[in-house]
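Haloacid dehalogenase (Alkalibacterium putridalgicola), 278 aa
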Amino acid sequence: MESHYIFLDVDGTLVTYTNELPESAVRAIKAAQANGHKVFTVTGRSKAEMYKKILDIGFNGYIGGNGSYIESNNNVIAEKKLSAKDTRMIVDWLYENNLEFYLESNAGLFASERFEEEAERPIQLYSAKKGQEQTDHLKVKDVFPDMIFGELPYRDDINKISFILNSYEDYLKAKHLFSEFKVGTWGGAGETALFGDIALNNIDKRTAITELLDYLGESEKNTIAFGDAAVDIPMLEVCGTGIAMGNGSREIKEMADHVTDDVANDGLYNAFRHLKLI
């Protein structure tokens, strides 16, 4: 059996959007590793969001911040951060425009004063869009259990800043003002988006996988990527085989080599079996 490099998105792929980790996914990963395959997470999450139950699986490496941070066997390969000056500039603009936000770093998620209150409804809507049931009871702490409130937001270790969109115009303003950065949206397509985010430009999951493979001296030939959203499409494109989750968006299902079951219905395990990784 040839050894493969397996790259897994986290939210909607490894875990549900309410952070539920299927036991079958853990079994699949451990069995694949026992068969000689290497498994990496590739996620928008900072390392502070990689909670113990996820890390305890025991991955061979981690790509976070949608490509801004790369680890292999606990060795840091790359870490690309916003400067303290740029972070302050962005945070000040968010304050001036009454946009609640959180800063993403490996040290933690640092939220603005009213984020917990203002983000509750957008988080509920976001989870409902992703197919979760009974989302009206969700709190911000259910999705971000270790989020930190009340600390000074001017930091030098930030890889991404997410903020609540009061309107689509907020995103358009940010995209115009911060044109040298990568400004995007999430939680919906186009004007239905619930959140905006700002990060360094020219970084995504594709560039990070390529950088990691170059470091390891490997090619894309024996690589497999799993994802559920548009942000995952670049890594499915660069890898030898691309797998979309059954709960994934139409765009990623249309370009994937194979569509497996929903994350909550043993999608990862079934795909590993289909690909003969286990």
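Residues 63 and 148 are 22 Å apart (CA to CA). DSSP finds eleven helices and 14 strands in the chain. ok done for today
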